[in-house]
């Protein structure tokens, strides 16, 4: 019987029994059994569009807080330049990073992937990400679709 | 002084094997990832858990597991006389370390590498058994935060006064100077993660007292499970899924 069950997230096998390691709701999908927690942090997948807040401007990268177990990194080279031209980033671009995004700015970006050391890398979306200086009202990363950026207002709706 | 009168009742009217009334509430600190308030009689403790989040001190970051930090403090108003140094004194540092080791034993840290889990416990009202109440509150807060654990950790204390083993000592019984055994267990796995004792006990008596404390832990465990189940049901129904 044990071979017929696939152990998903939030489960573990202990002393010949399948136990839950998380407090949540048990979900069963065919042979997969997993526990869905109700209040855990966000788990990013590649391709997800996330909204993060800048917490640090580091050499050639921005560090964003995205309600995950680590902070995400947006490289300068992964960002679309204001003039839209694709070119090599120079030292001048690096010095002007703060004019693009600085601390407490909100950025919308796409998850590019995890590096070998576990760091989460983001990339800019196909159209320009719009920074806003407003204090974010609801900042939780989830699968959101950012649409209709006009007059500095972000309209965010679920995909 | 008489701690167990001839009828077999303690100073607060309890029987020797009787625990104080338990009360728990989850989700009290909205900004924290998980939080809980735990009461054992008059002892009231609040715990807040933040994490897993980015490690603040790069040098302590571990590539294969999460870093668990714990801070225990007592509110100024928690004891009879206003306390002057709520944290940073030796007792608080020791209890912080004890709670950290106890919780680290049950958290599945390898599932969250390069991150940090902060557990903050503060005693709001102290009437004996603060250590146990803190561990129980921390367990609830960790479960609320959705942090994976092998099992819940529950803790209870027991002592030996007037020739009788007593469960769940309050402050007056604790200050009597008799032995005070604090036990922390993983109830389903039946494993001990914390065992501390003040004063001295004979070996056989110690086994009786520790057994009593373990029973107390199991009673706390069934209460905590009930509370978590109720809380999960409520959250799920509020979501309307």
TrEMBL record, chain A:
Compartment list: Nucleus
Pfam families assigned: S1_RRP4
UniProt keyword annotations, A-Z: Exosome, Nucleus, RNA-binding, rRNA processing
GO cellular component: exosome (RNase complex); nucleus
Native species: Salvia divinorum (Maria pastora)
Name listed for the protein in its UniProt record: Exosome non-catalytic core subunit rrp4
GO biological process, alphabetically ordered: rRNA processing
Domain S1 motif, chain residue ranges per copy: 45-125
Family per record: Belongs to the RRP4 family.
Molecular function GO labels: RNA binding
UniProtKB/TrEMBL annotation, chain B:
One Pfam family this sequence matches: RNase_PH_C
The UniProt record lists the keyword Cytoplasm: yes
Compartments, record wording: Cytoplasm; Nucleus, Nucleolus
BP term (GO), one: nuclear RNA surveillance
Highest taxon, organism lineage: Eukaryota
Keyword match Cytoplasm: yes
Cellular component aspect of the GO annotation: cytoplasm; exosome (RNase complex); nucleolus
Primary site of residence: cytoplasm
Signal peptide: none
Residue stretches making up the Exoribonuclease phosphorolytic domain: 18-148, 151-216
Family assignment from sequence similarity: Belongs to the RNase PH family.
Identification of the protein by name: Exosome complex component rrp41
Organism this protein belongs to: Salvia divinorum
């Amino acid at each position: 019987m044990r071979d017929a069950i696939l152990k998903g997230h939030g489960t573990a096998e202990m002393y010949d029994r399948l136990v839950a390691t998380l407090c949540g709701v048990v979900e069963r999908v065919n042979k997969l059994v997993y526990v869905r927690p109700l209040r855990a942090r966000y788990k990013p997948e590649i391709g997800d569009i996330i909204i993060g807040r800048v917490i640090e401007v580091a050499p050639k990268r921005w560090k964003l807080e995205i309600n995950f177990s680590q902070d995400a990194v947006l490289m300068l080279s992964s960002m679309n330049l204001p003039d839209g031209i694709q070119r090599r980033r120079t030292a001048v671009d690096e010095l002007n990073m703060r004019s693009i995004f600085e601390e407490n700015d909100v950025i919308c970006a796409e998850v590019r992937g995890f590096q070998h050391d576990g760091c989460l890398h983001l990339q800019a979306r196909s159209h320009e990400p719009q920074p806003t200086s407003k204090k974010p009202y609801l900042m939780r990363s989830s699968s959101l679709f950012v649409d209709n950026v006009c007059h500095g207002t972000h309209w965010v709706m679920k995909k | 002084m008489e701690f167990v009168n001839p009828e077999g009742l303690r100073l607060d009217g309890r029987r020797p094997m009787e625990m104080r009334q338990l009360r728990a509430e989850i989700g009290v600190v909205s900004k924290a990832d998980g939080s809980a308030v735990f009461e054992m009689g008059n002892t009231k403790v609040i715990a807040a858990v933040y994490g897993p989040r980015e490690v603040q001190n790069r040098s302590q970051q571990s590539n294969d597991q999460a870093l668990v930090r714990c801070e225990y403090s007592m509110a100024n108003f928690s004891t009879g006389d206003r306390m002057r140094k709520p944290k940073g004194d030796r007792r608080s540092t020791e209890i912080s370390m004890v709670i950290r080791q106890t919780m680290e034993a049950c958290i599945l840290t390898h599932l969250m590498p390069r991150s940090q889990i902060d557990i903050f416990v503060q005693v709001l009202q102290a009437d004996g058994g603060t250590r146990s109440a803190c561990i129980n509150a921390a367990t609830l807060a960790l479960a609320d935060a959705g942090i994976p654990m092998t099992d819940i950790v529950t803790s209870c204390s027991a002592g030996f006064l007037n020739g009788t083993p007593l469960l769940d000592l309050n402050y007056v019984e604790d200050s009597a100077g008799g032995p005070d055994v604090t036990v922390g267990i993983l109830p389903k796995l039946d494993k001990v993660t914390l065992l501390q004792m003040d004063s001295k006990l004979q070996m056989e008596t110690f086994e009786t007292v520790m057994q009593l404390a373990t029973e107390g832990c199991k009673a706390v465990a069934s209460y905590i499970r009930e509370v978590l189940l109720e809380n999960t049901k409520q959250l799920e129904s509020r979501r309307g899924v």
